[in-house]
Specification:
The chain has 11 helices and 13 strands. By secondary structure, it is an alpha/beta fold. It has 2 domains: 177 residues, 3-Layer(aba) Sandwich (Rossmann fold); 135 residues, Response regulator (Rossmann fold, 3-Layer(aba) Sandwich). The strands form 2 sheets. It has a 7-stranded mixed sheet with strand order 1-12-6-5-4-2-3, sandwiched between helices. A 6-stranded mixed sheet has the order 8-7-9-10-11-13, sandwiched between helices. The longest helix has 17 residues.
């Protein structure tokens, strides 16, 4: 246990700003997602209207127009439908240590928040440690299966399946047979997006040219919140001849959209339907987004807590469960929707197996 806990907790509060503003409610509850094999059951005491929910954001926090905002939408939906007693939202900072993440989670647990949700794989080690210290508190983590314990729920997604669909869309819409992928940080999770995107594009056009670039390398996670570098990466691809660029880069995606607009090209968003959430002057360049329904997963977890039915272990939101998909806002892919839905059904049926890493 760290010494002088409460002094360090105060520092953590200063490092992570509390964000309490309201955002638009997200998607509906998806009851078809099932615990993955090996997930053990650990029923919680029902929280209902008395629940105090703590949520620890990844870098960028509420307002990133992507991953964190999807989580925030799930929390907002729970506020409206489950009558939560209190919520507390804390944000991660660029370049912070695992100790800072530990103290953020510990601050919430010490404050009586139960359940607590950590948004992003970067909380893996800190959450596992803090969950062991607070065995009566229920925790959930998005995008990580390594932090396990009797009071930890792992909310997972088949990002590669959704990315296959937008990769196919990119190839179908590209006039130059040249597309690109911008990843925020070179980690296995983002490699799933890249692998699926490449597989989808090549399923349509086996000889298509695909550029790929990551903004930062671990332990630097700033690539998820650096629009300027996102713009530079995408601009290089457009200058080299690409006409569609997909990003899986969190808050850096805004820069990818700026580059697409300047190049008169097209972009593909991620996590949220970014043709609705991006800056208004950039929405028209977003032909589709790979929608990852973090809002559904967050709401499902909070509802299961309210119902006294929390399960520990992995719950996977894949294409079959409706956990990932592609968006159609703006009508730019209406002409290829039938083809994309054919690929979608082939993935769901098992006729197509989408790789989650590049060979």
């Amino acid at each position: 246990m760290l010494q002088n806990r409460y002094g360090r907790l105060a520092a953590a509060v200063l490092a992570g700003s509390m964000l309490m503003g309201a955002a638009a409610c997200g998607g509906s509850e998806d009851s078809s997602a099932k615990p993955a094999d090996g997930g053990s059951s650990s029923a919680a005491a029902g929280g209902g209207k008395g629940a105090k929910v703590g949520l620890a954001y990844d870098i960028g926090g509420r307002g990133d127009q992507s991953f964190n905002d999807a989580a925030a939408a799930g929390l907002d939906k729970a506020k409206g439908e489950l009558g939560l007693a209190e919520t507390k939202e804390l944000e991660a900072g660029n370049g912070e240590t695992e100790a800072a993440k530990e103290e953020r989670l510990r601050l919430l647990a010490d404050g009586g928040y139960n359940p607590i949700i950590a948004i992003g794989f970067a909380y893996s080690g800190p959450l596992k440690k803090v969950a062991a210290e607070f065995p009566d508190t229920k925790f959930a983590i998005v995008d990580d299966a390594d932090a396990t314990g009797p009071n930890i729920s792992n909310l997972m997604f088949a990002e590669h399946e959704g990315s296959f669909l937008v990769g196919a869309a990119a190839a179908l819409k590209s006039k130059k047979d040249h597309v690109g992928f911008v990843g925020g940080v070179r980690v296995p999770l983002i490699a799933k997006f890249e692998a699926g995107f490449m597989a989808g594009a090549k399923a349509v056009k086996p000889d298509i040219k695909i550029d790929s670039k990551y903004i930062s390398e671990p332990p630097d996670f700033g690539g998820f919140n650096d629009p300027a570098k996102g713009k530079t990466a995408a601009q290089g691809m457009f200058d080299a001849g690409a006409d569609v660029v997909y990003h899986a880069a969190g808050g850096s995606g805004g820069g990818v959209f700026e580059a697409a607009k300047a190049a008169k090209g097209m972009a593909i968003g991620v996590d949220s339907d970014q043709a609705k959430t991006a800056a208004s002057e950039l929405q028209s360049v977003i032909m589709t987004s790979m929608v990852k329904k973090v809002d559904v997963a967050v709401f499902d977890f909070l509802k299961s807590y309210a119902d006294g039915a929390v399960k520990s272990g992995a719950i996977t939101y894949d294409l079959k469960a409706g956990g990932v998909d592609y968006s159609t806002t703006g009508g730019q892919i209406d002409d290829i929707k039938t083809k994309l839905d054919e690929y979608k059904q082939k993935i769901i049926s098992g006729e197509i197996t989408v790789p989650d890493k590049n060979s």
